[in-house]
UniProtKB/TrEMBL annotation, chain A:
One of its GO terms (cellular component) is plasma membrane. Keywords: Cell inner membrane, Cell membrane, Cytochrome c-type biogenesis, Membrane, Transmembrane, Transmembrane helix, Transport. The keyword DNA damage does not apply. Belongs to the CcmC/CycZ/HelC family. Residues 13-183 form the Cytochrome c assembly protein domain. Signal peptide: none annotated. It holds the Pfam family Cytochrom_C_asm. GO terms for molecular function: heme binding; heme transmembrane transporter activity. InterPro entries: Cyt_c_assembly (IPR002541), Cyt_c_biogenesis_CcmC (IPR003557), Cyt_c_biogenesis_CcsA/CcmC (IPR045062). The keyword Cell division does not apply. This is Heme exporter protein C. Required for the export of heme to the periplasm for the biogenesis of c-type cytochromes. It comes from Tritonibacter scottomollicae.
Automatic annotation (TrEMBL), chain B:
The keyword Transmembrane helix applies. It is a single-pass membrane protein. This is Heme exporter protein D. Keywords: Cell inner membrane, Cell membrane, Cytochrome c-type biogenesis, Membrane, Transmembrane, Transmembrane helix, Transport. Required for the export of heme to the periplasm for the biogenesis of c-type cytochromes. It holds the Pfam family CcmD. InterPro entries: Haem_export_protD_CcmD. GO terms for cellular component: plasma membrane. It comes from Tritonibacter scottomollicae (Epibacterium scottomollicae).
Length: 244, 51
């Protein structure tokens, strides 16, 4: 069995409909479980107080904001190289999910920043690159909507996705590139000294796993919707041609 | 409910905004999926009916 079998829309729809119910359930259990665990059963941080509880939403959302763009990049490259329509539609389907994740990361960051940094916003490297990533998501979605021909739209959005990847990388590594700005380094690290304490890390891992599965479920479902919408457009166009 | 101290508004507003956005994303996704599915069915039915 090859992964390219899923380039067939029928095969893709059949398989995604089989896995989606389990994905919805497992992602809901992980997200709700992780949030309840983090919100109700973890202590306050000695410096941040109870605002540490925002980490369970902020970090998973930021993780998915960046990785959604990388998923779109991969799908766009597959479209450019192999011309599989399902991959172009998967990239299109992921963009609204990515923009919501970016928005959550920006909003929760601003809400947390106000009491901790004394400001809602700072032109810090990571915050700024995240804002630019948000604008790239907006542009990407607008470009899909602005072009009637789906193949042309897929071509142009693929180029935009490639350019935007620079900012997705910057969003991830901005803290390492520039040792300045307000945003602290990565919360999670393989180095035990740098990593957040286990009491915060385990519910955070649970939320991250939940967000990853939620993202996969949303993208599979939305790609199915895009495949059906494309088929509907094609049928209507064919019907109009035969009427004319 | 845990005691969130002086940061209660901060924490609760972050949770409210995030959960609202996630719920909105889910509802819009499911609503559009159901709409496209039913529209496609009616288009297919019409085309079959027209022969």
């Amino acid at each position: 069995m090859s992964i390219w079998e899923y380039a067939n829309p029928k095969k893709f729809l059949h398989t995604s409909e089989r896995v989606l119910p389990s994905l919805w359930v497992v992602s809901a259990v992980l997200i709700l479980g992780g949030l309840i665990w983090g919100f109700f059963f973890t202590p306050d941080d000695y410096r941040q107080g109870s605002t540490v509880k925002i980490i369970y939403l902020h970090v998973p959302a930021a993780l998915m904001a960046i990785n959604a763009w990388f998923m779109m990049l991969l799908a766009s490259l597959i479209w450019v190289i192999r011309r599989h329509h399902v991959s172009a539609l998967a990239a299109k389907a992921a963009a609204p999910v990515g923009i919501i994740m970016t928005l959550i990361a920006l909003i929760t960051g601003a809400i947390w920043g106000q009491p901790m940094w004394g400001t809602w916003w700072a032109w810090d490297p990571r915050l700024t690159s995240f804002l630019v990533l948000f604008l790239f998501y907006l542009g990407y979605i607008a470009l899909w909507e602005a072009i009637d021909n789906p193949d042309t739209a897929a071509d142009l959005t693929s180029i935009l996705c490639l350019v935007g990847s620079v900012f997705a990388v910057l969003s991830r590594y901005a803290v390492n590139f520039w040792n300045q700005g307000l945003h602290q380094g990565a919360s999670l690290s393989l180095d035990k000294e740098e990593n957040v304490a286990d009491v915060f890390a385990f519910p955070l891992y649970t939320c991250m796993a939940g967000f990853i599965l939620f993202f996969i479920a949303l993208v599979l479902y939305r790609t199915g919707t895009e495949i059906r919408a494309r088929r509907m457009k094609a049928l209507i166009a064919r019907e109009r041609m035969s009427d004319a | 409910m845990p005691d969130l101290g002086k940061y209660a508004d901060t924490v609760l507003s972050a949770y409210a905004a995030s959960l609202l956005l996630l719920a909105l994303l889910l509802v819009v996704t499911l609503w559009r999926g159901a709409w496209v599915r039913s529209e496609l069915k009616s288009v297919e039915k019409r085309i079959r009916g027209n022969g």
